[in-house]
Amino acid sequence: MTDRLIYLDNASTTPLRKEALDAMMPYLTTEFGNPSSLYPMGHHAENAVAEARDTLASLIGAKSSEVFFTSSGSESDNWALKGFAHANKGKGNHIITSAIEHHAVLHACQALEKDGFEVTYLPVDAEGLVRPADFEAAIREDTILASVMMANNEIGTIEPIAELAKIAHEHGVAFHTDAVQAFGHVPIDVDEMGIDMLSSSAHKLGGPKGVGLLYIRRGIKVDNLIDGGQQERGRRAATENVAGIVGYAKAAELAWNEMDAEHDRQLALRDHAIKRILAEIPHSKLNGSWESRLANNVNFSFEFIEGEGMLLQLAAKGLCTSSGSACTSGSLDPSHVLLAIGLPHEIAHGSLRATIGRDTTMEDIDYMVDSLAATLRNLRMMSPLYEDFERGNYDSIIAGYAADGMKNVHA
């Protein structure tokens, strides 16, 4: 074990920014009023929520009246899909999504199937991209909604959202995007991109856990997911998380202000990691697109190893990484995203996701790659499959990928 700690799991959650915490503190202490109350303390809280709503709406080119606060990105996804489907079932019962969506979208779609809706789960290419031609071909006369994530939470692939939304609108189909991973990392303008609904979560960009938003374009009909009081203009019951909302807005404002500079800095770290791994670690494959990819995302699969053992050994060296979505960390099944881009089970099990944050340095990246190389050597020395391969008795699956012309493979 080591006292060193390098956090490289920022797609899972991010540290709360000091500026966000400072903005939150009054509403956790002296300004603890309920925004629905009529006395001054309530008005203070109400005004704080309104200001945060204005800030967040302005960042994505929306109107304040189109932004609704939720408890999480998952709630926002569920509200968008279930609320829209049930509100518009008289127009049709068909929904389109992709095979690599976050489980908040996939499981919401599965729940809707039990309610009689039909869902098409679009395949993606080897880099995780939804093909616009496949998307348009899937649209039917009874299609009412499409939901495609802006950037994948595991492999970082950025989808052609504006193009997909344009196709959807040409056929009279509403378009939702799960922007949880993209929000604060890439520019977003809901009007220019043609987005009708958008989900986001504060803790992915330096804000607090337990608060998210759903953008709903004016005129889009969506049933309530949570009934009760008249909060959020009667659309989402429950007392607002005032401190969380204020922290969310502050963190998002900072992320937008720093976006260009931080993108370039993280891009240099990301590409340095990718190039070193491909050059120095045999039997490795970059998962996802290199070109259309979040600047902070590194995702690899390694042959002849088991992912859990790799993560535990890296953790012992002080490295916080993951094998995929934090929401499936307790599952023994391989990532549905990696399977969807064509990896076989045995390779998908040996995956690593490292996601860069504001505090990550080049020294951290080099330490990660050095530690990863040493860990994989140790694990492969204990692998009977690797021993067979070294003796020429095992056909390398990744070598087979290289023969088939797949990019970014070192075998």
What attributes characterize this protein structure?
single chain; 411 residues; alpha/beta; seven-stranded mixed β-sheet; disordered C terminus
Account of the 3D structure:
The protein starts with 5 loop residues before the first strand and ends with a strand. With 411 residues, the protein is an alpha/beta fold. The chain contains 15 helices and 13 strands. The model is unreliable at 403-411 (pLDDT under 50). Strands 2-8-7-6-5-3-4 form a seven-stranded mixed sheet, with helices on both faces. It has a four-stranded antiparallel sheet with strand order 12-10-9-13, sandwiched between helices. Strands 1-11 form a two-stranded parallel ribbon. The protein is 43% helix and 13% strand.
Secondary structure: elements and pairs:
Layout: E1 6-7, H1 18-28, H2 40-59, E2 67-70, H3 73-87, E3 94-98, H4 103-114, E4 118-122, H5 132-138, E5 143-147, H6 161-170, E6 174-178, H7 190-193, E7 197-201, E8 212-216, H8 231-234, H9 242-280, E9 284-286, E10 297-302, H10 307-316, E11 319-320, H11 336-340, H12 345-348, E12 351-355, H13 362-381, H14 384-390, H15 397-403, E13 409-410
Helix pairs in contact: 1-9, 2-9, 3-4, 9-13, 10-13
Helix content: 40-55%
Total count of strands: 13
Distance between the termini: 31 Å
Helix/sheet category:
alpha/beta
Overall mean pLDDT: 93
Low-confidence stretches: 403-411
Strand order of the largest sheet: 2-8-7-6-5-3-4
Strand percentage, roughly? 5-15%
Q: Enumerate how many helices there are, as a single number.
A: 15
Please provide the ordered H/E string of secondary-structure elements: EHHEHEHEHEHEHEEHHEEHEHHEHHHE
Sum up the overall morphology in one term: globular
Q: Round the Cα radius of gyration to an integer and report it.
A: 22 Å
The description of the largest β-sheet is:
7 strands, mixed
